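User: Earlier you gave me the apo prediction for this protein. Now I'd like the version with adenosine-5'-triphosphate bound, so I can compare the two side by side. Same sequence as before, with the ligand SMILES added.
Assistant: Got it. Here's the input I'm using:
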Amino acid sequence: MSQVTADGAITASKKQAEFERFTAELERRNRERKIHSFYPDEGPLRRGLYPKHMEFFAAGLTHRERCIMAANRIGKTEGCGGYETTLQCTGDYPYWWPGRKFDRPIAAWAAGKTNETTRDIIQRKLLGQITGSGSSKKNVDGTGLIPAEMLGKPTWKQGVADFVDTIPVLHGPSRRWTTLGFKSYQQGSGSFEGTEQDLIWLDEEPDMSIYGECLIRTATTNGMIMLTFTPLLGLSKVVMSFLPAEATPGYDDDVVRTDLG
Ligand SMILES: Nc1ncnc2c1ncn2[C@@H]1O[C@H](COP(=O)(O)OP(=O)(O)OP(=O)(O)O)[C@@H](O)[C@H]1O
Ligand SMILES: [Mg+2]
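And here is the structure of the complex with adenosine-5'-triphosphate:
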């Protein structure tokens, strides 16, 4: 009898340990595959509640330059720029994806205002937290939008602690590597010169010299530029370039009516 009890106790504790391992593994996978929790079919975060976000994605089919200029906290960075950058880098699109698709690995940049904000916001949202230390051990933990299993080994920028320079991202369908680079406007328009890019995501408003460089980098590839920002700088050149003519200063409604008449 006592033998049976002992076996039973061992079995129960084994089962408990197995259960804990299973739930820990499930939690790890959910943490490292955050992208799949966005825009579900049903529930409180269902994509039907995000018509503007869907319009932004769909516009990629027909427009090389896209901008979501909107209020704070509505999902510009993570819900639009970060989400689409992840899909375009990995080539892993949900079945309902209404936008453009690349069928090969791409070259992409993600950029923000300063080195620090790009690292703390964009890099964090795409790649997760920093782990380890020292150039050979330091890494990112893959708890951002790009699944951990799709991330290669990053290279680091000189002079800015923990700021990724480039990171390979596995393009699933081809089993080859996308190159994702991080930049900041603080580095100046010169740092945006150089290589051709298929996708550039600018989170926060750049000045025209940087935006112009990005247009050049994507011109020969028929690449895409995505801007996601709240217009804090007023009617800047970049803002005006996305506004319809009738919303820009100096537009004379009477003149247009006369011309049409
Ligand atoms: N589609 C989504 N589904 C679920 N959560 C989302 C979605 N989009 C954004 N979020 C969450 O909402 C919060 C705000 O999102 P995000 O940072 O993208 O907004 P933002 O418009 O860029 O904000 P800010 O004005 O501060 O720059 C974040 O915590 C993000 O995880
Ligand atoms: Mg933002």
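For your comparison, keep in mind: Residues 2-31 form the longest helix (30 residues).
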